[in-house]
Amino acid sequence: MLDDLDWELDRRGHQFVRYADDGRIYVRSRRAGERVMASITQYIEQRLKLKVNREKSVVARALRRPFLGFCFLPRMGEVRVLVDPKALRRAKDRLRVLTSRRWGVSMERRIEEINRFTVGWTAYFRLADTPTVFEELDQWLRRRLRQVRWKEWKRVRTRRRKLRALGISETNARQWATSRKGYWRIAGSKVLAVALPNGYWTDLGLQGFLDPYRRFREC
Q1: Which of 95, 171, 172, 196 gives the lowest tally of CB atoms within 10 Å of its CB?
Q2: In a 10 Å sphere around its CB, with 0-12 CB exposed, 13-18 middle and 19+ buried, how is residue 51 labelled?
Q3: What distance lies between CA 112 and its chain's CA centroid?
Q4: How far apart, in whole angstroms, are the C-alpha atoms of residue 110 and residue 87?
Q5: Is 182 helix (H, G, I), strand (E, B) or coil?
Q6: Contact 122, 138 (CB under 8 A)
Q7: Which of 27, 46, 45 has its CA nearest to residue 36?
Q8: Average of pLDDT values for 124-148?
Q9: 200 near 109, Cβ under 8 Å?
Q10: Of 55, 57, 90, 85, which is closest to residue 70 (Cα–Cα)?
């Protein structure tokens, strides 16, 4: 039914984009925006018999309104495409579920599920011009996984043995194995970053965000 709206907007000569029921109409001034908002709202509700969400429908500058998870930033005569902060929060919420210490699955299964999410998410947001966002997500994700691994080791002697096997000195292994610091603090410690470096997770098959982002951008 919204195809009829597209035809109507095109007939009126408006520049617009639409995905499902989310759309943007571009005009030259706020006054024009208010006029078009009123007339299109009337068309949708009276002709198409659909309800317009007035809380989400606003007249605003194009660069101030996110669209489909993206937001936009003018810089040096160009417009940069960014990932909307709300989309980042939703991604982290999903990863919190997948990296929950209460989810009792093997690390292989966990990474498989994480890859399914991260690669798909990155494929969608590959248009973003900010590789640092994907790098920071990777760092945060690996820290979450170090928490999981630390809990898996559970006992003090298991932690000491694992740390020693991963190249940590006897002194540091004993000190950290008996530490009472919380999981998140230990996951961010230098000793665990050395014991479980980026390559460790790559060897387990973790794809993360940055590597898929670079591959998609090269296509």
Answers
A1: 171
A2: exposed
A3: 17
A4: 22
A5: coil
A6: no
A7: 27
A8: 97
A9: no
A10: 85
Amino acid symbol at 207? Q
Parse the chain into domains and list their residue ranges: 2-60, 84-218
> 189, 216 in Cβ contact below 8 A?
no
Rounded Cα gap, residues 217 and 219, in angstroms = 6
User: What does 34-93 look like in DSSP terms, one character per residue?
Assistant: HHHHHHHHHIIIIIS-----TTT-----GGGS-BTTEEEEEETTEEEEEE-HHHHHHHHH
Percent with pLDDT over 70 in the chain: 100
What pairing do the DSSP bridges indicate for beta strands 70-75 and 22-26? Answer: unpaired
Structure tokens of 15?
């520049």
CB atoms within 10 A of CB 60: 10
Q: Are 151 and 100 in contact (CB under 8 A)?
A: no
Could you report the per-residue pLDDT of 202-219, keeping only the tens digit for each?
Answer: 999 999 999 999 999 987
Among 63, 80, 81, 8, residue whose Cα is nearest residue 40: 8
pTM value? 0.82
For residue range 126-136, what is the model confidence (pLDDT) as tens digits? 999 999 999 99
Neighbours of 65 (CB within 10 A): 13
What are the helix (H) ranges across 154-197?
A: 156-165, 170-177, 183-187, 190-195
Structure token digits, residue 166: 């991963």
Q: Tokens 């509700």, residue?
A: 45
Beta-carbon count within 10 A of 67 CB = 14
